[in-house]
Design a protein that fits this description.
alpha/beta; 4 strands; about 15% strand; globular
Length: about 140
């Protein structure tokens, strides 16, 4: 049967990641996806569905659609804290205890997402192969 595959990308936190992906998508088209036509599944935090400017309804996700010929599928993801973590730290979660470097909370969400939630995402069940693209 034909290979069922997709490209994935996670945008979480700072909206600068939408602009980084907007720069990468045309290159993905030219060097890969114009030939293979894999859908690009973009997991994103809720703030990327908001208007880019206060006087327009054009969202960061809309902006990405204008930058590629690839099929984009958007999947909104929320921070995932276990109930005991929420009870102890609230909705902002724990601060990093790493003594070498203090990582922002978004980094911890990204790690948790790719360690567990990514592999259980309903949006990916239809695919045999998933290519994770980092910005």
């Amino acid at each position: 049967h034909p290979i069922s595959a997709c490209v994935t990308y996670l945008m979480y936190g700072d909206v600068k990641f939408a602009f980084e992906l907007a720069d990468v998508l045309p290159k993905l088209d030219v060097y890969f996806n114009d030939r293979y036509h894999y859908p690009v599944v973009v997991f994103h935090s809720p703030n990327f569905a908001l208007p880019m400017r206060c006087n327009t309804s054009h969202t960061y996700l809309d902006h990405l659609r204008t930058r590629t010929r690839s099929q984009l599928l958007f999947v909104e993801v929320e921070p995932d804290f276990r109930p005991e973590m929420k009870a102890k730290y609230g909705s902002k979660g724990p601060k990093s205890t790493c003594t070498y470097r203090k990582y922002p909370l978004q980094y911890h969400h990204m790690c948790r997402f790719f360690d567990y939630l990514f592999f259980h995402a309903p949006a990916l069940r239809a695919y045999d192969y998933v290519w994770r693209m980092d910005g």
